[in-house]
Specification:
Elements: E1 2-6, H1 12-24, E2 32-37, H2 40-53, E3 62-66, H3 67-84, E4 90-92, H4 103-112, E5 115-117, H5 121-129, H6 137-153, E6 154-159, H7 167-178, E7 182-187, H8 198-203, E8 209-213, H9 221-227, E9 245-250, H10 257-264, E10 268-271, E11 278-279, H11 285-303, H12 308-327, H13 332-340, H14 346-357, E12 366-367, E13 369-370, H15 371-374, E14 379-386, H16 388-394, H17 403-412, E15 415-423, H18 425-431, H19 433-440
Parallel strand pairs: 1-7, 1-8, 2-3, 2-6, 4-5, 6-7, 9-15, 10-13, 10-14, 11-12, 14-15
């Protein structure tokens, strides 16, 4: 296995495309290369880079797809039935309820109707390729045959943003690597916002070839001097970009934060999580519609015998009805009765209510982005709202590698030019204005 650790702004996608094209020069006839990413945007980004390298058209033997599409189409769909006698007709994107203890039952209920929930894809694929504790000898014998078939056409798997791999995906990659399939993973454990820690664990395996890309093409060196204080020595970044600005501001000095943000015209303004003054839950109406529409597709067939086409049409109407009525302040219970014309289960009602309530923004709060939502983005003029929990990592009171430290690194590496760090009232109270100003004086 080959792991390439590339920090923020290092051109990971361009590097990935070049590595794929270079490796393809040694491809054996009939073999395929799979490049997997975690979002459709990432798939399109990599595809565009490959099209540039191949002058317009990606060779058919290079398949670029999301990790869920790859595992479902190439592993689960062709092989899961052979092992466990269960086949899936579709993948469900249904939002699961807020109570995690019911998730397993919700996934199981979908499975009984021939649908595999997207959250279960990596686990089911891991069962196919590695197995589960209840497997019998017959399962193991079939699995060996399945991996032999898979190896006959899969030559190399490339993983983009590999810091986002979960435990099941890690086991899948290790299994395929052991079976002789080449694995190249490109990512940055410093940006592991989920806190999985799996890329870091893989890179610490003595049998893994680890390379580092330390050059940053995004941030001025002035910014990197700050972010470099929280990274490992072999991941310290450098940049040829001079200039840039680091400004330190305090919430207590600014009478109207909302007006300040508007006046400064920040490209990105972000905080790790919302509080009683900053709101990060700006779900657009089309995002709400998408969630409601998929939920209706799951619920309505339980209460209707209509054809699939009619269910899709009715689900579309129902999602729009929920949005319209919520906008007008109508009671949710009345809309539910109108849509379903019967009493639905309490947990189903709770799912609908959760989607509606989660988009009720407090207009008195200042609306900014979450750090998680701006990962992968950049701007010339960025505002990082430094709360007390992240300040503990910046000022080195805490040093553990976890998702909070990753959020801090992401926040510090978004700007191409000017970075304003605004300390919240709580952060200033904990560390004092004098301490903060003295700390940042070494960078500004």
């Amino acid at each position: 296995m080959r792991i390439i650790i590339a920090g923020a702004g290092s051109g990971k996608t361009t590097s990935m495309a070049s590595i794929i094209a270079e490796s393809a020069n040694n491809r054996l006839q009939g073999k395929y290369y799979f490049c997997i990413a975690f979002t459709n945007n990432a798939v399109e980004h990599i595809s565009s880079k490959l099209r540039e390298l191949y002058h317009g058209e990606i060779p058919k033997y290079i398949k670029v797809m999301t990790i869920h599409s790859f595992l479902y189409q190439e592993v689960i769909k062709p092989y899961y039935y052979l092992l466990y006698g269960i086949s899936y007709e579709r993948v469900s994107l249904k939002p699961l309820g807020n109570n995690a203890k019911y998730h397993a039952k919700e996934v199981s209920d979908l499975e009984k109707r021939g649908a595999l929930h997207v959250s279960a894809i990596t686990q089911r694929a891991m069962w196919v390729l590695k197995g589960k504790s209840t497997d019998k000898k017959a399962h193991k014998d079939k699995r060996k045959q399945i991996i032999d078939v898979f190896s006959n056409y899969c030559d190399h798997i490339f993983v983009d943003e590999a810091q986002d791999i979960d435990d099941s995906t890690k086991q899948i990659l290790e299994t395929l690597d052991d079976k002789g399939i080449d694995i190249t993973a490109v990512g940055d454990p410093k940006q592991d916002l989920h806190g999985f820690g799996n890329l870091r664990m893989l890179s610490e395996n003595k049998n893994v070839n680890v390379e580092y890309i330390n050059r940053c093409y995004r941030c001025p060196m002035k910014h990197l001097r700050i972010s470099n204080t929280i990274v490992n020595d072999n991941e310290i970044q450098n940049s040829d970009i001079d200039g840039g600005l680091v400004r330190i501001r305090f919430e207590t000095d600014i009478p109207d934060i909302g007006e300040f943000i508007k006046a400064e015209g920040f490209d990105l303004a972000y905080i790790v999580k919302k509080n009683n003054r900053f709101d990060t839950h700006a779900v657009k109406q089309d995002g709400l519609f998408d969630g409601l529409y998929h939920l209706m597709l799951e619920l309505i067939p339980k209460y209707s015998d209509d054809t699939d086409l009619m269910i899709h049409r009715y689900s579309y109407w129902a999602a729009q009805r929920f949005i319209n009525d919520a906008t007008k302040g109508k009671e949710l219970s009345k809309t539910v009765r109108r849509v379903f014309d019967c009493k639905i289960e309490s947990k189903e009602y709770a799912q609908i209510a959760s989607l509606i309530n989660n988009v009720q923004n407090n207009e008195a709060n200042v609306l900014v982005s979450s750090i998680e939502s701006i990962k992968g983005q950049e701007g010339n003029n960025c505002l990082f709202i430094l709360s007390k929990d992240l300040a503990s990592y910046l000022f080195l009171d805490k040093k553990d590698d976890n998702k909070m430290k990753a959020a801090l690194y992401v926040a510090l590496t978004r700007s191409r030019k000017d970075l304003t760090i605004l300390l919240t009232t709580e952060a200033e109270k904990k560390y004092s204005k004098k301490f903060v100003e003295e700390y940042f004086s070494q960078f500004t």
